[in-house]
Amino acid sequence: MRRILLRTLRRRIWNVARRASRAALQLCICLLPCAVACDAQDTSEYALKAAFLFHFAQLTKFPAEAGSPRAFAFCTVGKDPFGGELERVLSAKTIASRPTTILHLKDAANVRNCSVLFVGADQEKQATAFLAGARDAAVLITGESTRILHAGAMIAFERDGERLRFQVNPANAAKSGISFSSNLLNLASSIVRD
Question: Signal sequence span per UniProt (predicted)?
Answer without folding.
Answer: 1-40
